[in-house]
Design a protein that fits this description.
mainly alpha, MetI-like fold, 2 domains, two-stranded antiparallel ribbon
Length: 319
């Protein structure tokens, strides 16, 4: 009897010991996982940073090679861009003008339409209309840009030529308008988010004081959400500057330094596509010129994003 009890006690001790050991092993394994997760997340975060750094260094080194052959001042002030031939000239102003004009036209379309759409969705639309209109905007945002390019070339340009006979088959007006249509969902979505973040108590307080719906919208809601609205405009401009396929297809490849929107012009992105798709020998000045243009485009986009962040922080209202 005593022997059986001692055996039972011994078995219980063994089972308890096993349980303790299992718990310790599980605890040590979970502790090791806990230590590994922050390192893994750091590695994932570092990949994006290192990729950006790699792109920047590649552009920088190749751009330096370009400026060994071409004057920095003549590149940024030159009005003639003739990259081919024995007397090649590399002036950025024709590309810069085309980029800014196309982006300006796009903003004239995207900002009013997108902003008014955001106001309607946020302040006036019923839930039923929102369920229909928002998916339509999302579909518009999901259309590939090359489809927009062919739309500009085969539909918008012939349509505009019926009203503007002097409009060339490839011009900067048509892709600018289509880029604006493409950017409308971005402006509408970001602006609508900013407007919707304004507390309902501010609307109700203004309405209680006798303000109309329109007065509440323009004098209370819009000023309260102005930082997000302006940031959406700046990000939309950045998106327009970096657009490639629409201008490549519909604006042509004429490197004209002009402000006539009916003529064919080339943007910085379209020039990069042309050079990379052509027969530019590696190590030539023409080859390095695409890196100089890409670096300029990178700086433009970076400044726009920094401006958007500054505006968001400077004028941000917290409720």
């Amino acid at each position: 009897m005593v022997l059986e009890k001692s055996i039972d006690i011994y078995k219980e001790n063994i089972s308890v010991r096993e349980m303790i050991e299992k718990k310790r092993s599980k605890h040590s394994f979970s502790k090791m996982i806990e230590k590994m997760i922050p390192r893994f997340l750091l590695l994932i975060a570092a990949i994006s940073v290192l990729t950006t750094l790699g792109i920047l260094l590649t552009l920088l080194f190749e751009t330096i090679e370009f400026f060994k052959d071409v004057s920095f001042i003549s590149f940024f002030t030159g009005t003639i861009l003739q990259p081919l031939g024995p007397n090649a000239e590399f002036g950025l102003l024709p590309l810069l003008t085309g980029t800014l004009i196309s982006s300006g036209i796009a903003m004239l379309v995207a900002i009013p339409v997108g902003f008014m759409t955001a106001i309607y969705l946020s302040e006036y639309a019923s839930e039923r209309i929102k369920k229909v209109l928002k998916p339509v905007l999302e579909i518009l945002a999901g259309i590939p840009t090359i489809v927009y390019g062919f739309f500009a070339l085969t539909f918008v340009t012939p349509l505009l030529r019926s009203f503007i006979p002097a409009l060339e088959p490839t011009n900067i007006l048509s892709p600018g308008i289509v880029m604006g249509i493409m950017i409308i969902p971005m402006v509408a979505s970001l602006s609508e988010d900013a407007l919707s973040s304004v507390p309902d108590s501010m609307r109700e307080g203004a309405l209680a004081m006798g303000a109309t719906k329109l007065e509440v919208t323009w004098k209370v809601v819009v000023p309260a959400a102005i930082s997000g609205i302006i940031a959406s405009f700046v990000l939309a401009i950045s998106r327009a500057i970096g657009e490639t396929m629409i201008v490549t297809i519909a604006s042509g490849s004429s490197k004209n330094f002009t402000f006539d929107i009916t003529q064919s012009m080339q943007t910085m992105t379209a020039y990069i596509v042309e050079v990379t798709g052509g027969d530019a020998p590696a190590g030539s000045t023409l080859y390095f010129s695409l890196y100089a243009v890409a670096m300029t485009l990178f700086v433009f986009t970076l400044l726009m994003n920094m401006l958007a962040r500054y505006i968001s922080r400077k004028f941000r209202e917290e409720y």
